[in-house]
Amino acid sequence: MEFDDEISRRNLIKGAAGVIGVAALTAGGLGFISKAEAAKKTSAQKSSATLPWPYKKFTAAEIKEAGNIAHDNWFKGFCSYATLSGMVEILRRKVGEPYTSFPMELTTFAHGGTAGWGGTCGTLIGGGVAASLVAGPKIGEEINNEVISYYATTALPIFVPDHPKAQIKSQNTSDSPLCHLSVGKWMKKEGVGFLSPQQMERCARLSADMSMKTIELLNLWADGKFKPTTKAPFMANQIPSQNDCTECHGSNIPQTSGPFGTGLSLLEKGH
Amino acid sequence: MEFDDEISRRNLIKGAAGVIGVAALTAGGLGFISKAEAAKKTSAQKSSATLPWPYKKFTAAEIKEAGNIAHDNWFKGFCSYATLSGMVEILRRKVGEPYTSFPMELTTFAHGGTAGWGGTCGTLIGGGVAASLVAGPKIGEEINNEVISYYATTALPIFVPDHPKAQIKSQNTSDSPLCHLSVGKWMKKEGVGFLSPQQMERCARLSADMSMKTIELLNLWADGKFKPTTKAPFMANQIPSQNDCTECHGSNIPQTSGPFGTGLSLLEKGH
Question: ipTM beyond 0.90?
Answer without folding.
Answer: no
